[in-house]
Design goal:
Number of domains of chain B: 2
Chains: A mainly alpha (about 290), B alpha+beta (about 350), C mainly alpha (about 290)
Strand content of chain C: under 5%
CATH class of the largest domain in chain B: Alpha Beta
Radius of gyration of chain B: 25 Å
Oligomer: heterotrimer
Number of strands of chain C: 0
Low-confidence stretches of chain C: none
Largest interface: A-C, 97 and 103 residues
Structural class of chain C: mainly alpha
Number of strands of chain B: 20
CATH architecture of chain C: Orthogonal Bundle
CATH superfamily of the largest domain in chain B: P-loop containing nucleotide triphosphate hydrolases
CATH architecture of the largest domain in chain B: 3-Layer(aba) Sandwich
Radius of gyration of chain C: 24 Å
Shape of chain B: elongated
CATH class of chain C: Mainly Alpha
Strand content of chain B: 25-35%
Helix content of chain B: 10-25%
Distance between the termini of chain C: 36 Å
Number of domains of chain C: 1
Number of helices of chain C: 13
Largest sheet of chain C: none
CATH topology of the largest domain in chain B: Rossmann fold
CATH superfamily of chain C: MetI-like
Mean pLDDT of chain C: 84
Helix content of chain C: over 70%
Structural class of chain B: alpha+beta
Chain lengths: ~290, ~350, ~290
């Protein structure tokens, strides 16, 4: 990494900067962790304790009642299952479509493909509110409101720009010579894609999968619009709903927030570098 | 006075020692070239002089000042990088005047000095351009301009010509030589190209694996290499090495190789096998009866001004290289009688040292 | 051979383009269409009303209120995370121990949902036992029970802070990537020429981070335009519309008041704003690309 605050290489004089920087960072880190500490604390205290003003203190005992209540609630099971049923298909399909489209834009360009690519990319930049209403009407017309299908479809469509962008950028780095060599050996495009390009693109796919999964899992706008009954709620929507129902069940809310965030947290912890790569790769290439 | 003294310098990166005790005295206004293969430590040595690397042991003095622990900006040095290191977002003028701006010199003064330097390097028309609009040679001149403007005592060059194409390299070499004549400064120049070393240097320092193999003028290194490493490194095409044994069976000692017996004289002859070194320009075609040995021509390279002939000898693992006049009629497969110039044969003991 | 490639192109692009056209392009066009009607969202009868909806925008106080709030929101959502992210990136880049731990701490909120972030910060702003009031009271011995999210003057600002907490990590990560792309040589030149730390940051590092800044600002603008969810969770646009943004206003008009036609008109405005911003972004990106290559 570039040495912006280089500890002076030649001078052996005492340099106070590293210590100062470290202390500042520690303070900022503690500030940043405070909100999360709040959730953690709330999940292991009773609602009564919290309501009495006692959230921000170290508990002398761990109250696990909130967790049991949440984990035993069949509604919560349903929410989690629904979210999974949306996230996994939507992630896989949007990835697949992104691979297909990205491959064409990278390796099989044609007259106007640049413009078409830009149009698709531009789709990343629009606030989804802009197409909220027509989509509602469309799915209403085919009777899919209050099912999970619209949510899946819309996430696939909305994920297409970023998936196409990243896969196209990645495929562009695969040497054309590889494709040409395969074609000379008699492969058709599908075989080139599946046997040559795809195996090489696993890191890029990992990046996309983490980004997409996180985004879809965390979303609550589309479920809010397209589902109505409790049966069909996803976990984030369930969290919102819970707030409405038990307006003062702080402890349960905290536990549920943690449970709801667990999958994306785990994904984040294990695939952190893919997250970072994804943000910088797609973003920097515009 | 810009004498540069390097005393017992050692450098380690962790447990790896890359510089193993270097001592060097560079005089004021001297142009010294550090030369050597990749990884030999020449760049590291240069960067320690600059202050960009810490010194593990030893001392560096500029003038009479001990600068071993002094910040680079306070050592009165300037450095020209291989990559030019120009700021892409600044104009040529701003790049050249960068150091002055940092030192908070007045605007008029900066402009005046930048104009001066630009004139010297023929950059006046380019002052408002950005680096991306310049050619490689122009960029290098801007980098040089930036280093001149603060009147440093010592100029450091880190392989500045490596990124240029061959023709440009020759041109820039001349510019740097002219620069040295014009300025009153000591110059330390790092390169892996022995031609640059030979043409630019007052003295050459040959580095190998973190130590100095030999220090001397170009001619000294050419005519009296201290060991096989220097002998093989300096001079292109490189010296031919022939393994030989000392034969004392006929009274006076002689070096025996192949069919040849060359009388050999030395204050102290080493034990065991020796190596003879002879440069391609010191082998010629023998007239009848005079030949030291014969060989079979393998390949002839015609360069116009001369030809290089590669001759299989049978007693050397590689063919021997010979410089020949341009119109020599010789083809692969021909048998060639060869004679070595007695006065120009170099002798090395088995450990590589000259004797 | 060329014809065969053409067939494969069609096959590969069919599904992606089909999905995209059906679910993005066509709805976009429809939005434009509906903005000229008075559709209420569920009946199958509606009238064409020309520019009536757009005319209504001009006289709609709520619309202007939402527009102003959107601008405030966007400006703050750009400045706060960008600056803080830059500072964090510079601090972490200086190779102090534990750099990757710090990076994770600042960056992990990005993997949380807006719902969770909103919830967390609602607890922080809670009048009686929220962290903010508790901490302030502990520090200066006061007896605050200020309702940050319930007062018109502080509601929007409070949400902005919550938003920044989540987004700062993103800007930090992009700046960190940008910092690694600054060539070591240039920083060594700074050392040789005698630049102080501030001079180095001001004259060299920040200008050379311009490509990263362009990305960060663009992302901030885009994300903030989309920043509907967190407002919905934390304030719902209130109190008294003090945190109402265009996206929120559009949602309320369409799904609460059933004025889908009018809501579409608002979304057309949103669309045009986004389009302008994208245009500017691509143009700046080109310029920056040329300079920094």
């Amino acid at each position: 990494m570039a040495d912006v605050h280089a500890i002076h290489p030649a001078g052996k004089e005492f340099n106070p900067w590293p210590a100062v920087i470290f202390i500042v960072l520690v303070c900022l880190a503690l500030l940043f962790l405070a909100p999360t500490a709040g959730v953690l604390l709330s999940s292991i205290k009773t609602t009564r304790e919290i309501a009495l003003g006692d959230l921000w203190s170290i508990p002398d005992r761990l109250y696990l009642g909130n967790f049991t209540e949440v984990l035993q609630n069949p509604a919560v099971h349903r929410y989690l299952l629904n979210t999974l049923m949306v996230a996994i298909p939507a992630t896989s399909v949007s990835l697949a479509l992104g691979v297909l489209a990205g491959y064409v834009f990278a390796k099989l360009p044609f007259c106007g493909s640049e413009a078409l690519f830009l149009v698709i990319i531009a789709g990343m930049f629009f606030p989804p509110q802009v197409i909220l209403i027509p989509l509602y009407r469309l799915f209403n017309a085919v009777g899919l409101i209050d099912t999970l299908w619209p949510v899946i479809f819309v996430h696939i469509a909305m994920g297409l720009p970023i998936c196409t962008l990243l896969m196209r950028n990645f495929f562009a780095t695969v040497p054309n010579a590889l494709r040409e060599a395969a074609i000379l050996e008699g492969a058709n495009e599908w075989q080139v894609l599946t046997r040559v390009a795809l195996p090489l693109s696993l890191p890029a796919l990992a990046v996309l999968a983490t980004l997409q999964f996180t985004w879809i899992w965390n979303d609550f706008l589309w479920p809010l619009i397209f589902t109505q009954s409790d049966e069909k709620r996803t976990i984030m929507l369930g969290l919102v709903n819970l707030k409405g129902q038990y307006s003062v069940a702080w402890g349960v809310q905290g536990a549920l927030s943690l449970i709801a965030s667990l999958p994306t947290l785990i994904v984040f912890l294990f695939f952190q570098r893919y997250f970072i790569k994804g943000m910088t790769m797609g973003a920097v290439k515009g | 006075m810009a004498r540069l003294t390097i005393e017992n310098i050692t450098k380690s990166f962790g447990s790896v020692q890359v510089i193993n005790g270097v001592n060097l005295d560079i005089a004021h206004r001297e142009f010294v070239v550090f030369v050597g293969p990749s990884g030999c430590g020449k760049s590291t040595m240069l960067r320690m002089i600059a202050g960009l690397e810490t010194v593990s042991g030893g001392q560096i003095r500029i003038g009479d000042r001990d600068v071993t622990n002094v910040a680079p900006s306070k050592r009165e040095i300037a450095m020209v990088f291989q990559s030019y290191a120009l700021f892409p977002h600044l104009t040529v003028a701003e790049n050249i005047g960068f150091g002055l701006r940092l030192a908070k010199v007045s605007r008029e003064e900066i402009d005046r000095r930048v104009a001066d330097v630009a004139k010297t390097l023929q950059l006046e028309m380019l002052l408002e351009r950005k680096p991306r609009q310049l050619s490689g040679g122009q960029r290098q001149r801007v980098a040089i301009g930036r280093s001149i403007i603060r009147n440093p005592k010592v100029f450091l060059f880190d392989e500045p010509l490596s990124n240029l194409d061959a023709a440009l390299r020759v041109q820039m070499r001349l510019e740097i030589a002219r620069l040295h004549q014009r300025l009153d400064a000591t110059m330390v120049y790092v390169t892996h190209d022995q031609t640059e070393a030979m043409t630019l240097a007052d003295r050459i320092v040959v580095f190998n694996a973190g130590r100095i193999e030999q220090v001397g003028t170009p001619i000294e290194l050419y005519e009296k290499p201290a060991n096989t490493f220097v002998a093989g490194f300096i001079g292109a095409p490189s010296m031919n090495f022939i393994e030989a044994n000392i034969d004392t069976s006929r009274g006076a000692p002689a070096a025996a190789f192949g069919p040849a017996m060359l009388p050999i004289e030395a204050a102290r002859l080493p034990e065991g096998p020796i190596r003879l070194g002879v440069r391609p320009e010191h082998i010629s075609i023998a007239s009848d009866g005079e030949a030291d040995f014969s060989g079979t021509v393998e390949i002839v390279e015609k360069l116009g001004a001369e030809s290089l002939v590669y001759v299989q000898t049978g007693f050397t693992p590689e063919p021997v290289t010979m410089r020949a006049p341009p119109h020599l009629q010789v083809s692969p497969g021909d048998s060639l009688p060869l004679i070595l110039d007695r006065a120009r044969i170099h002798r090395f003991s088995a450990d590589g040292a000259a004797f | 051979m060329e014809r065969e490639t053409g067939v494969w192109r069609l096959v590969f692009l069919a599904l992606p383009l089909g999905v995209f056209t059906l679910l993005v392009i066509w709805p976009l066009a429809s939005s434009f269409y509906y903005s000229f009607t008075n559709w209420n969202g569920f009946s199958s009868e509606y009238d064409y009303v020309g520019f009536e909806n757009f005319a209504k925008l001009w006289t709609d106080k709520l619309f202007f209120n939402a527009a102003v709030n959107t601008v405030i929101w966007m400006v703050a959502a750009i400045l706060l995370p960008t600056l803080l992210g830059l500072v964090l990136a510079l601090l972490i880049d200086s190779r102090i121990p534990g750099g990757s731990v710090f990076k994770s701490i600042f960056y992990f909120p990005i993997c949380l949902s807006a719902v969770v972030v909103g919830q967390i910060w609602i607890w922080i702003y809670q009048p009686d036992w929220g962290l903010l009031n508790t901490a302030v009271n502990a520090a200066v011995g006061s007896d605050l029970s200020f309702a940050w999210l319930a007062k018109p003057g502080t509601a929007l600002g409070s949400v902005i802070v919550a938003w920044s907490w989540q987004q700062t990590g993103l800007s930090m990560v992009i700046y960190l990537a940008g910092l690694t792309s600054i060539s070591e040589d240039l920083l060594e030149v700074c050392e040789i020429e005698g630049a102080s730390i501030w001079q180095r940051i001001r004259i060299v590092v920040i200008p050379l981070l311009t490509p990263a800044t362009v990305v960060v600002v663009a992302l901030s603008v885009i994300n903030s335009l989309k920043g509907f969810e967190i407002l919905y969770i934390m304030t719902g646009g209130g109190p008294f519309n003090s945190s109402d943004t265009l996206a929120m206003h559009m949602y309320n008009e369409s799904f609460k008041k059933y004025l889908m036609g009018y809501g579409s008109a608002i979304s057309v405005v949103l669309f045009l704003v986004a389009l302008t911003i994208i245009g500017i972004y691509f143009r700046e990106l080109k310029k920056v690309d040329e300079i920094y290559g």
